[in-house]
Specification:
mainly alpha; 13 helices
Length: about 325
């Protein structure tokens, strides 16, 4: 009974649920503020995403007459559920241990695809031509960045597995524990190409400029989420806030989970600062300094650069092992 209560608390309160949503919205607010400053604008307040979410929950839900009702309503729920489950798998050194299962890294790989799948289902179910275009673009984007992500995860799993006398470990908790005992993989030269590949993966997975092609406002006016309003759109915003925490938290767990002592609050603050720095580097600076690319350009880019970088780390790891 105690384990069930703890699981519910972890899922709904901390580190998932309310905490993860608030954390993600706060990061998104900071991202918007820093981006505005970089562009010499005042920008919205940091708490603007919270205000937007509250306003959306009070708006009327409008469903197109020709939409597939069940799929249209269930799509954002699928994305939120997937990300809430994913948050529970992300260990935070000195704060939250995560799930000690041997295959949680592979589970995360599948869970990270659910937001894109939710957008595709929602876009296709809306019966909007813009949603259909967004569906096809989202599918191509997912195919583009999934390969380098898979190679990065495989490289880290092999690195830790070979170093501990095995073949590969797909347990995030074991990967984090290995780094606590032997040093962060961030400082291993064989892992630097994989780290760069993951940094490039982040803006594509988050759908920000220059890889916001599926939701390009000036071309297909938000694409898959064009017909969403009220609570449905709010759920997609919650999904995005959770995905921010999952993607940034995964990067930290894979390459730099090192805590600052054993103080819970200090380690939580340290985790927040690492997420903030990583977000500014991989999302804020990128989207404020680049313009949107075409779909074919994005596909070729991910096939060339992050994939090659991840392969370099994979080869170096195998040679070193």
């Amino acid at each position: 009974m105690t384990d069930i209560v703890k699981l519910i608390f972890d899922l709904l309160i901390f580190p998932g649920g309310l905490f993860a949503v608030a954390f993600g919205l706060f990061l998104m607010g900071i991202d918007r503020k820093i981006a505005a400053r970089l562009q010499r604008r005042v920008g919205p307040p940091v708490y603007q995403p919270f205000i937007d979410l509250v306003k959306l929950t009070r708006k009327e839900i409008v469903v197109p007459e020709t939409a597939h009702l069940q799929a249209f309503r269930l799509a954002p729920l699928l994305g939120v559920a997937g990300m809430m489950a994913a948050v529970l798998l992300i260990p935070i050194a000195g704060v939250y241990q995560g799930f000690e299962h041997s295959g949680d890294l592979l589970v995360l790989l599948y869970l990270l695809s659910l937001p894109a799948i939710a957008l595709m289902i929602g876009g296709s179910a809306s019966s909007s031509p813009f949603g259909a275009i967004g569906f096809s673009r989202e599918m191509v984007m997912m195919m583009s960045y999934e390969l380098p992500l898979l190679l990065v995860l495989l490289t880290v799993a092999l690195k830790v597995g070979l170093a501990t006398g095995g073949i590969a470990t797909f347990s995030l908790s074991e990967i984090v524990q290995f780094q606590l005992e032997n040093g962060a993989l961030l400082f291993d030269y064989t892992m630097l190409p994989a780290l760069l590949a993951f940094l490039v993966f982040i803006p594509g997975n988050m759908g920000v400029v220059p890889f916001d092609i599926p939701e390009a406002e000036t071309e297909i006016v938000e694409g898959p989420i064009l017909e969403y309003s009220g609570t449905g759109l709010a759920l997609f915003k919650i999904m995005t806030s959770l995905k921010v925490v999952v993607v940034l938290g995964l990067a930290i767990a894979l390459f730099f989970p090192t805590p600052l002592g054993e103080n819970f609050l200090l380690n939580l603050l340290w985790f927040f600062l690492k997420c903030l720095v990583l977000m500014v580097i991989s999302i804020t600076v990128v989207r404020t300094s680049t313009g949107r690319v075409r779909m074919d350009q994005a596909f070729k880019f991910y096939l060339k650069y992050p994939t090659v970088l991840a392969l370099i780390s994979l080869v170096l790891t195998l040679l070193q092992g």
